[in-house]
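[step 3/7] fold_predict: job queued, chain A
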Amino acid sequence: GEKMLRKDSLSIVFNGDWNKIYIQPDWIAKNVFNQSQIEIVLTGNGIDVLVSYRCNSVQILPSQNQIIFSIMKVDESSIKSLCDSISRFFLNSNTPNLNSYGFNSEYEDNGESFAEKLDNMDDKSSLFSEGYEVAKCVITRTLKREEKIFNVECSLNESNINIHINEHHEGNNMLEEIQKINMDTVNLYLEECWKIVKAMGYEKEDE
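[step 4/7] structure written:
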């Protein structure tokens, strides 16, 4: 699954009501990264510009209703830094209202056979005969296994496949669960994702 996993797509998102203090670069540098200086990254333009903070391989995109922790590449030291940053963030902050949190990652491929499997709708040929082609196809599923919820969105753009997998958490024990997030938690999530991708019909080409 290494080959399909988008290297910069792993993120952990916390939805809640966050004080403006926790969005400031100085606070994040000191309390989350334990550094005096961090890199400030601007993306987008005009009023849509997003400000995120980066240190080592961890990037944080904070807003008042959502804080996104992500890593630039999926390897052991980056995952460890990611878990450490989350741990320090929750140690030094609090929110009156944590709504949900989730793990996210994306898988990409341009495999024809997988594309056929994804877009096997019966109406394809009748649309085709009317002169339409399917430019984009998006299929969304919510999967449940042993109380875990996975939101899976597959999109097919020409023959490029993108599979976005979100493991969604909410409920009363969220803070306890978040405090336990470690490398094993993240690796377990990635293993589950690969199980889902395989079960959807993607054969392991890298074997």
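[step 5/7] annotate
The first helix runs from residue 25 to 31.
The longest strand covers residues 98-109.
exit 0
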